[in-house]
Design brief:
By secondary structure, the protein is mainly alpha-helical. The chain folds into 3 domains: about 150 residues, Globin-like (Orthogonal Bundle), CATH 1.10.490; about 110 residues, no CATH class; about 110 residues, Arc Repressor Mutant, subunit A, CATH 1.10.10. Helix content is about 60%, strand content about 5%. The chain has a 5-stranded mixed beta sheet with strand order 2-3-1-4-5. Helix 10 packs across helix 15 and helix 12 packs across helix 13. The longest helix is centred in the middle third of the chain and has 48 residues.
Length: about 400
């Protein structure tokens, strides 16, 4: 094609650009801005630069379209930062192409172009439109990647801020959550996890924050008491051992994680069941007891030594009977039903306990203490070693020996 074609088209550049802007604003609602606005002026400038770049390249194969491609890459990035896709921009590019084709047909009649000339121009136009659309796509994808990386960094900082002790302020958490794209919940809970090395990291819903690669992995789950949240946690941890901390406010995630980890430690010791996800608040007495093992060891030696010094085959039925009897308000019949023994057996064992311990079990001032000691001991000392790894030290005897 002859460069003279560009000379014939150059005087009509502004009118072509104005027609394209009108068509874009009529067909793309998000671009329908007042012409005198900053946005409208910017749109007019972009269209004029685009039309001008194409006209100047007619008949000049060596002309580079890099400058206009960079403009559209920036537009694509802008759309990404605004949270929009490329549908509006792609429609605008097609609209400009349609207007250009209509005008080229009119120019062919006005300037007496032959069909070959018109064909070359329209073919070049399609190549040009494809290039600027591709440049917009690259800019959009690059900006989204940067945004995703920045958001992930913000989510990591937010996760660390949430579990900080002493806790961060609510305002600091809210500000960082906004940057991370995380909706601040009314409550949350931490989940301590022991994931097998060969287990892949699961895909998490965006509201769940996680740290899989620290020494003690954990999750932060928003609104843990909401509908379906139990099933959500179970599905996230899969076959891993996991413990859920107490539900807390957004400034108390560190507390929730601390108790989740303590609960998981008891699972690993064999004190709590290892099957399924364990919830901290289902095991408050045993957790409170374990946190005071040294004191409880002294108290057990002081209060229950005659009972605990018996051989296991005699001691264990008596401990269980006394605990169940006290839990059932000293009702031998109810205790017998729970123990699946005859009520006379319960009464015989209670008389034997009174011989060993004296009036202690019936003393109102020590009743709660005795029940707590018995409950803690019965959970920590599991006859026959059930729930422990082979060779693990007897936790109950270790507790008693702490005195």
């Amino acid at each position: 094609m002859s460069p003279d074609i560009a000379l014939a088209l150059r005087p009509h550049l502004e009118s072509a650009a104005a027609e394209m802007v009108r068509e874009i604003q009529a067909l793309v609602p998000e671009y329908a801005r007042p012409e005198e606005s900053r946005y409208g002026q910017r749109m007019r400038w972009v269209v004029e630069q685009t039309v001008g770049a194409f006209i100047e390249a007619i008949g000049r194969p060596e002309t580079s379209w890099d400058e206009v491609a960079e403009i559209f890459a920036e537009i694509g990035a802008y759309e990404a930062r605004k949270g929009r896709g490329l549908e509006g921009l792609q429609t605008s590019i097609r609209v400009c192409g349609q207007v250009a084709c209509r005008r080229f047909i009119q120019d062919a009649r006005r300037l007496a172009w032959n069909l070959d000339t018109l064909g070359h121009i329209t073919e070049s136009l399609f190549v040009f439109l494809e290039r600027i659309a591709a440049a917009a796509g690259r800019g959009h994808a690059a900006a989204r990647q940067v945004m995703a990386t920045e958001r992930e960094r913000a989510r990591s900082r937010l996760r660390d801020l949430l579990i900080m002790e002493p806790h961060a302020s609510r305002d600091a958490i809210t500000d960082l959550a906004r940057t991370a794209g995380w909706d601040v919940p009314r409550s949350l809970a931490a989940v301590a996890v022991r994931r097998p090395d060969d287990q892949p990291v699961p895909i998490l819903p965006p509201e769940v924050l996680a740290h899989w690669h620290c020494a003690e992995p954990y999750l932060i789950v928003p609104d843990p008491d909401g509908p379906g949240r139990d099933h959500l946690v179970d599905s996230l941890v899969g076959d891993s051992s996991a413990a859920v901390g107490p539900t807390a406010g957004i400034t108390e995630a560190g507390m929730s994680l601390r108790w989740a980890r303590r609960t998981l430690a008891l699972v690993e010791r064999g004190v709590l069941p290892a099957k399924g996800t364990v919830r901290c608040l289902d095991h408050v007495p045993i957790l409170a007891g374990v946190m005071s093992e040294e004191l409880l060891g002294v108290a057990m030696r002081e209060r229950l030594a005659p009972l605990l010094d018996l051989p296991p085959q005699r001691r264990d039925p008596l401990v269980r009977t006394l605990l169940v009897y006290m839990e059932n308000r000293d009702n031998a019949v109810a205790a017998a039903e729970r123990l699946v023994v005859h009520e006379q057996t319960v009464r015989y064992r209670i008389r034997r306990l009174e011989q060993l311990l004296g009036p202690l079990p019936c003393d109102p001032e020590h009743r709660l203490e005795v029940m707590f000691l018995l409950h803690t001991w019965s959970r920590l000392h599991q006859p026959g070693g059930t729930g422990r790894a082979p060779g693990q030290e007897d936790v109950g005897n270790a507790l008693i020996g702490a005195a």
